[in-house]
Automatic annotation (TrEMBL):
Keywords: DNA-binding, Transcription, Transcription regulation. Pfam families: HTH_1 (PF00126), LysR_substrate (PF03466). Belongs to the LysR transcriptional regulatory family. Residues 4-61 form the HTH lysR-type domain. This is LysR substrate-binding domain-containing protein. The lineage of its organism: Bacteria, Pseudomonadati, Pseudomonadota, Gammaproteobacteria, Aeromonadales. The keyword ATP-binding does not apply. InterPro entries: LTTR, LysR_HTH_N, LysR_subst-bd, WH-like_DNA-bd_sf, WH_DNA-bd_sf. Gene3D superfamilies: Periplasmic binding protein-like II (3.40.190.10), Winged helix-like DNA-binding domain superfamily/Winged helix DNA-binding domain (1.10.10.10).
Length: 294
């Protein structure tokens, strides 16, 4: 019986997640040709076709779907075993604050990897839509790390990525044509909400707050129902959302920044490094001071 190399399985799982060889290659820091060769080798070992390649990406075959589930379980067990031996001495509490748009999307594989690799660490995650509130908790010593979204070129923190806010509506509702414009936004204190209101007021576009929510899922549910137009970062766009490119004022660019408290334990340092080094973030542009300016 042939063994399945862990490296090949990691590559396959990343491709299965992104359904794009180029994107997967970027996240794995490998050339697309290397990714393609690894997939071919895995298919040879499995003696079946796992992926069907097309003009706009790849899709999993039924065999590929089956392997994806088994491969993820095997990788999790592999990482948990290694973590139990290699990082058994790294423990302590890690208090991490972030927006749920990160916790539910780009951070999911990072936090999963951290938990598996550092099983003795006690991770506590606090989600809040208010970036300044999270930073105030960091200043007060109630958080160790904060991954937040700030207006472009804000002071402090290490910038990991740059994005822009966009107006979104559902595919089936022309909500953006209503007057006054109904908005589905986070509750007061959210930078997305503030940016939207300021842009509309500057452009003399009447609007009303039609729906408020503490969570991204709730806000997007209202957008899908046609209750209001939403505001989200472009890179977090859902497949069934339509970006409103015309008729509404432009929205500002944003920076995703990581803030680290002055006094942290080794487990917190490892999580900060996991986030900083992740291919989930593009690391474009200048790097700012990593420590929080009090």
């Amino acid at each position: 019986m042939r063994d399945l190399p862990i490296t090949l399985l990691r590559t396959f799982v990343m491709v299965a997640e992104t359904l794009n060889l180029t994107v997967a290659a970027g996240r794995l820091h490998r050339a697309p040709s290397t990714i393609s060769m690894q997939l071919s080798r895995l298919e040879d070992l499995m003696t079946t076709t796992l992926l069907e390649r097309g003009q706009y990406g790849v899709r999993l075959t039924p065999a590929g779907e089956l392997l994806r589930s088994h491969a993820q379980q095997l990788l999790n067990l592999h990482d948990r075993i290694l973590g139990s031996f290699q990082h058994a001495d790294i423990d302590g509490k890690v208090r991490f604050g972030t927006h749920d748009q990160y916790a539910a999307r780009s951070l999911t594989p990072l936090l999963e990897a951290f938990v598996l690799n550092y099983p003795q660490a006690r991770l506590e995650v606090f989600c809040d839509h208010r970036s300044q509130h999270l930073l105030s908790l960091l200043r007060e010593g109630k958080l160790d790390l904060a991954l937040v979204e700030l207006p472009m070129l804000s002071d402090g923190g290490q910038r990991l990525d740059r994005d822009e806010l966009v107006w979104v509506r559902s595919q089936t509702h022309m909500t953006h044509l209503r007057d006054p414009l109904p908005l589905a936004v986070f509750v007061d204190g959210c930078s997305h909400r503030n940016a939207a209101c300021q842009a509309l007021e500057k452009g003399d576009r009447p609007y009303r707050i039609a729906f408020t929510s503490q969570s991204r899922a709730g806000m997007l549910a209202a957008v899908r129902a046609g209750i209001g137009v939403g505001v989200i970062p472009r890179k977090t766009l859902e497949p069934d959302m339509v970006v409103v490119e015309q008729g509404l004022p432009p929205l500002p660019k944003t920076d995703t920044c990581l803030f680290v408290a002055d006094q942290i334990n080794e487990a917190t340092t490892r999580l900060a490094q996991t986030i900083e080094q992740s291919p989930q973030f593009t690391h474009t542009g200048p790097v700012f001071c990593r420590r929080l300016a009090v």
